[in-house]
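Journal club prep — side note

Before the paper discussion, L.F. wants everyone to see what a predicted structure for a comparable chain looks like in token form. Sequence:
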Amino acid sequence: MKPIIIPIRLLFDCPEIDSNDFSTYSECSPALGEYMYAIATMDTTKIYVFLFVCRNSEGVNYVVVFIWDFNSDNPVKRFIIRQGYRMSESEEEDYLKYTNSELECDEDAYKEFLKKIQYVFPAWGVINYTKEQIGVLLSHIYYASHRSGPKGVFYRYNLTTIAENINHIPSISLLSETPEEIIGRNLSIDNIRVLNKPFMIQYLFSDESISMFKNIYELFPEYVNVNMLPCQWSYLRGISDDGQAITESFNEDLYSYLGEYGDERLNALYKEFYYVRSQIKTKSLISTPVPVYINEIVEHIKAIRNYQENIKLADDLIKKHNADQNWVYSDSDYIVLNATHVQEVIDESVALQLSLINSIDSFVNGNVMILLMRRVSCIHEPYVSIIVMRDVQGGYSIEYVIGRCLPPVSVYRFVERYARAMGIKYNPEYVLSFDDVGFTEEHKTYVEEYKARPGINEDD
């Protein structure tokens, strides 16, 4: 449908203001003229704007806009904006052409003007435009000051993006006085405020895109709001489009991550995460990672996929290595078991937040042993993994004791007994670190106690 170009002046009867009426709207003082001249002549290639909120002797508030343009036949132009009045057609045309020009102004004076106009003319709905948006401000205060049709309505409702793009919106109601009535299509004011966001405005440009927006809003009314970021909208749209979904259903954690980090690239990263996750088999599901770990987790899952694609060869190698030594050991509380195949290590790693993936290659090659430590009371539930390294002399040493969180001291005491029984080197100073999350005074006491034992040295 072809957009409508709105013939504003033909629609509304409005009194015209005479910017040259100096008896009603007094001329600027000599001091003010000198101030503007000093600034405007600093660089005559630029166009300078000076804005003032004034009050005449009759108590009428109005705005004076001075535009200094030395590239024009009339280098100094004065425009008056008053509530309920519009400019003459020729003056309006001259004024509005500057709204699309590159303009300069004194920043401090500009900020002061914004405060005054918001206080004196609150119904105009002027927002805190930046200095770079002064052209938009000029358009806003003019259209909002009088009955000027839909554009003025949108400005007064703080819907600047829509006001600036009004000629791209099809089939609007030209005589209505609220945004909902102007746009129609059963859009609420909350919907319209969302569509006023710069990255959403395109959805007002056709009936099809409006319908798409409404469909997505109906699916996720709680999340389609003015606080939504572009990457969050892309995510919601992806879920709603056939064949484009990042996930099959809404994931609130992911939506929150996108809002926290605000990075459009995260959509592609998470889409890859869910895709590669769907290609592997694990006993427990790999949870959605926080953005800081998404790249690392995706690489881990790709590694899992590669292992599973070549699982028979890997399992044969593991079986051969396990034949060299039996690693099983237990007491009344804990038991250590051999990991006998790749899938077992993968499931263990997923349960322990993928902490073992980087060790699988070495495990398959026989340079590392991955041992599964369980609580006797729940022997089938992953608890702690022990990484044992083979040294160049053919001996073994315990390098890591890994759990979902830092294991209690009782685990390290058991590992110490296990190492002694198996003839494996073990030193809690290397396995434990004061920087570990969850490191307690009890861990510290255990390490110091171990170091103080007779016969303990760096070779242990």
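L.F.'s comment for the group: The chain has 20 helices and nine strands. Keep this in mind when we get to the figures.
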